[in-house]
Amino acid sequence: MPIFSAWCTSKTRLDGKIAVITGANTGIGKETARDFYRRGARVILACRNVEKAKAAIEDIKCNPFPSYFSNSRKMQTADKNGLGDLEVYSLDLCNFKSVKECAKKLMKEPAIHILVNNAGIMFTPYQITEDGFEIQLQSNYLGHFLLTLLLLPKMQSSTPGCRIINVSSRAHIFGKIHFSDINLKKSWWYIRPWKAYFQSKLANILFTKELARRLKEAKINGINVYSLHPGVIKTELSREFDSTVMPGATFIINYIIWPFIKNAEQGAQTTIYCAIDEKTANETGLHYSECCVTSSKDVNDQEAEDLWNYTCFLLRLEINKNFSTFLETVSRQFDK
Known about the structure:
This protein is α/β, with parallel strands linked by helices. It is built from twelve helices and eight strands. An eight-stranded mixed sheet has the order 3-2-1-4-5-6-7-8, sandwiched between helices.
């Protein structure tokens, strides 16, 4: 267990709320789903591996309370408050067609109050997706960018109290947006996985900053946006480390330095905090760690705007200074 790990202590209930969590079949996404379910929310696990997500649902239903709950507190909570509902939607962020199909299905939900862009991959071998992008860039950033835009109209109709949470990483401080080589084709093969991951996580923070600004300028109220560093966590993200970091890296992480690494339950706390805490209801566009606002890499408004415009170019989205009109155009473009 790490020396310090903050906990979200909010007792907020989510009865009647609908939350979408990408990559919720394992790790911190699964623990976030467990927490929301315990609070009474309808939780949609948007995952690439549907069978694994179904297994996660069964585990959550059988074990709805986190391990730090005492037996008496479990009984007290179960007596006073009901549990929520769980469902799986298929979503492959590395396939824009899948993103579009998932968004269409989600738009049929009566509302979307919380969107947690949690899914991600880390230091994976270099690969270009069918859509033509480096796989970490698309999985961690581009897929979530498109999904968020497609779901924003539904979230607008679900206000007030809607929140978008982008899971980033402290590793973003090593990142740089390579506008002239976004797929890192010119980089040395052995550092591509590192540079790609750092770039994607910086992009998450820039996206958060720019989306918050555009929502504010468009006077779209009731939707707040957050980015966060969950901490160093023992999850399945390390499965590729032996080939992309160094031989034996997975063993070192899992068996030598594990006492200093968070488990998934601890790692989910800042996500949960951003999604439900009463204090964060009055904050937007900020970066969080250990359940509080923290500084991120010094990024400016121009860099965030440049990335937004470049991302629209990559996704072939028609840029419009009127944000509401832009969202309508995006919806029409992908509703084919």
